[in-house]
Amino acid sequence: MLRTTLAGLRMHKARLVTTALAIALGVMFVTGTQVFGDTLEEGYSTKVLGAADEYAAVAIPAWDEGAPADPEAPAPVLPADTLEQVRDLPEVAAAGGMTRGDAPLLDKDGRAVGSVPTIGMSVGPDTRFQPAEGSLPEGSGEVALATTSADATGYGVGDIVTVLDSEDERHEFTVSGLIDFGVDRELSYRGVVAFDEDTTREMTGAEGYSEIDARAAEGVTDAEVVRAVEGVTGSDTHVETGDAYGDRLAAAAGGDTQVLTVGLMLFALISVFVAAIVIYNTFAILVAQRQREMALLRCVGSARGQVFLSVLTEALVVGLVASAVGVAVGVGTGWAGFAFGGEALGADASQPLVVGVLPVVVGMTVGTVMALGAALLPAWRATRVPPLAALRTSATAQGLEKGIGWVRITVGAVLFLISGGIVFAATDGDRTGPTGMVLTTVAGLVCFVGVVVLSPLLVRAVVAAVSPAMRRIGVASMLAADNSRRSPKRAATAMIALTVGATLITGYAVVSASLKTTMDERLAEQFPADYRISASLDDPDAVVPQSAVDALEESDAIGTVVERRRTSTESDDASGDLAVRSYIGATLGEDIKSDAVSGSLTDMGPGKVAVSEEYAGGREAGDVLPLATEDGEQEYEIAAVLKDGGGMGGVTLAPQDFEKAFPDVDGAAGVLVDGAEDASAQQVRDAVYDAVADAPKVGVSSMAEMRAQFDDMLNIAFLAIAAMLGLAIIIAVFGIANTMALSVLERTRESAMLRALGLTRGQLRRMLSIEAVVLCLIGAGVGILLGIVFGWAAGTTALESMVFTLPVAQIAVFIGVAVAAGLLASVLPGRKAAGASITGALASE
Amino acid sequence: MSQTAAVAAPDDGTQAPPVVIARSLSKVYGVDDSAVRALDGVSVEFARGHYTAIMGPSGSGKSTLMHCLAGLDTASSGTVHLGRTDITRLNDRQLTQLRRDRIGFIFQSFNLLPMLTAEQNILLPAQIAKRKVDRERFERLIDVVGLRDRLDHLPSKLSGGQQQRVAVARALLGAPEVVYADEPTGNLDSRSGAGVLSFLRDSARDMGQTIVMVTHDPMAASYADRVIFLRDGQLVDEVHAPTAETVSDRLLKLES
């Protein structure tokens, strides 16, 4: 029996090529993801270990695990004399200390980089860090930059950079080298300028050490060093071996790797699922076509079990071979992924590929089990073929599949109703957040099962609806319309594979587009100006210098300048500080807007306040709000109660009232700037930057740039997800091509007859193309519809007050892709059908 | 294509001009040692309005001859003329057009598209050729073949004989210069077969339709005006106004 199966496999190689491809692609994704994740993780570890494991002990100030970090408290340090004490220990051969403070690096515009000051850090002779490029800084004129800082500013080795000291004085340095801090998240995020130790103290004013690294003396173990160091540092210091320290950092970075791997794995599973659908369909068709073969086997004495096993054996062989190919290609993909993406993710790019046993085993198992699982039902069906079928003249089903299938309709309708009910429950009312998301996902799955159940009817109904139009176009499209209706079950299964991808990608596109619109609207509300100038974030009392405000007001390129003053006081109605603000130079309700629950911002004026709901204590517009001020408790009439979550949380006073209530606040925390109407964007930008040139730590952000950054982020995320789902879509197209190829095989005689009747090769090819395109369009169309509905539901539950936006352009692209996919899927089957000799096809059965 | 010219007396083949002329037609499959001569220098003419049957034992080359005459297969050497057209010189596109506009086909089975109704099947060639359907001829044909109340049925709902009659109507609707029938009654019981065969004979006599039919059944061949016999790819015999007995006798002689 096995020999028969294998002989059959050899004969039908071509039929199974696309199936094998589908399996291989799915497995490739699974294995590739694992290899990529493992290599990345290993890349992180070697990077840290390479630096830290040379040290016997690393001492850092102890931290309290549970307590939330207080950003305003100075970072704890080790006293300066600790280093000397460590050096004097007999167990220690050498020790180095690391000093840290703030040292804002200025970019090429003369602005401080980022919203948090760059870290100034010492890299002495015994530092853990080695330059990725150039050399470590020596003397007072040199500096080394973190590679992330270099990327953000565009500076390289040999450039002159400006760094502010703790008094905000500018100092110029030559960049001696670049250091890759990749694995440490804080260092990479804030950026680092590294000096020698003396320069670091001069620049940052930092005392003590944030880290002391000790090397072991001859013949002393790391553990002994750690104990010795602990002896001199005391209880407020955490001492561990270099290995342990490295492992801890790597684990933290590895957490990111895991998130990434899990994310990728989700997409891999989608691919595997789609591949399973494709395999199921292929085996179902093959069994149907080989009915006679199966019957003959039964005639010559095969038991049902043997027929069953023969189909499964076929699936097993295909699964094993394809999985092996998939694993091999997956290893290559993982390597490519690491080679191109590893560096960007902060791993050591020279890390050799890590191919564990697990990814290989998992890949082989997933592929083989998937193939076997998908072949189970077709194999069972093969056992139902009666031996008599061998004697029938026509083995292949020629007619239409009949029957409306009331069961199908009922089950499908019930599932849709359930799904609709869940969506309604999830989007109605306050069930936003995780619960809503979970409900939406469940609803999506239920609805999808409904679509699967109804899909044969769906295919038939859609084709019936469009076929009158198709008949009118020409004979090729007329035949295509009729062909599409011939085996709706088969067409539906082929189509579903594409629907999965289309649903997910459309859903994501809808969420992404809606998110963008929503964010744009919020941005416009919270950021009602071309530019926002804000006092540096590291000091809550910092203000924008008055000289800058004056310069802006005098500039011709600037239209309006709104000063935002801010302080805080105590509130009886809510815990925590109550923010009190005032806008000088703005018409509230016009320049600055926020949604009101009661009253209106336009009613603001002297003696009145706007207050956000949280602090209103149930009061409404017209009520009186008492407020603790420097001038004693004052009472104001509420002009508007504002929705929480807008840009105006807390209390907003009229400028006159604010000045009287808080006379000590004499500077603007922020300035909103609009360009003059006749000024070009560049003129406005120049005017803004000129005005703040003397205050480099003052932050300048532009609405347009922020929006662009946000859009970039969303676009990159969308492209990444689209690329991941792209593989699932490719697999689905293979499935459609496979279904087409098998249909063509089945219709060999019919095609020959059509050719004899005068259908040209071109018309035959076109007929198949249209058939495939119709199939793809239905599949994609259903997916797009589902994607829009569930994208909307997911967005609504995930984000309060989401503005639904239909990504029309993207959906048009998806439809275009579906048409292209159909054309692509029909190329080979069409070529085969058109190339067949008429007489040969007529003679054979 | 016009029928007015096709009123020649069916029994007098010498007077009617030939529609299809094959000269020294050969067809070789394979090369060198394994070469098989399916046709070996066949020269034959088919007169307008004549109903001719091609007979011969299995492997005699009768189907190959028909395929070469119809432009479904290419001959290795020799020529085939349809009217004034040398079809052996045509490329695939021209052959397709020739089949579409000037030739009708009836096959043994798989004649009809399963997803089209009887009427749609009959009209299919006209649709492929974007030809205007001669409604009058269509009505006359479906009456003669007795399909009027079956027009909107799918092939799966028709009997074998009805299916073949749909195929005959389809082949005749375009009034092609010649109709090729490949074992048209091979899958039918004798009564349905007789219906189809007499209908073919009538259309040759009444409408002047030229018909070439391949068959192995002497009874079927007896409906034709003339029977030609093939053996080993060569034309070996010919009978005019055949009866089932004469044809059987000749066949037996050939096979012995």
TrEMBL record, chain A:
Membrane topology reported for the UniProt record: Multi-pass membrane protein
Family: Belongs to the ABC-4 integral membrane protein family.
GO molecular function: transmembrane transporter activity
Protein name as catalogued: ABC3 transporter permease C-terminal domain-containing protein
Transmembrane segments: 264-287, 307-333, 353-377, 406-426, 438-470, 491-511, 716-745, 772-794, 806-828
Keywords recorded for this protein, A-Z: Cell membrane, Membrane, Transmembrane, Transmembrane helix
One Pfam family linked to the record: FtsX
Domain (ABC3 transporter permease C-terminal) ranges: 265-387, 724-837
Top-level division of the source organism's lineage: Bacteria
Compartments where found: Cell membrane
CC per GO annotation: plasma membrane
Chief localisation class: membrane
Classification lineage: Bacteria, Bacillati, Actinomycetota, Actinomycetes, Streptosporangiales
Source species: Streptomonospora alba
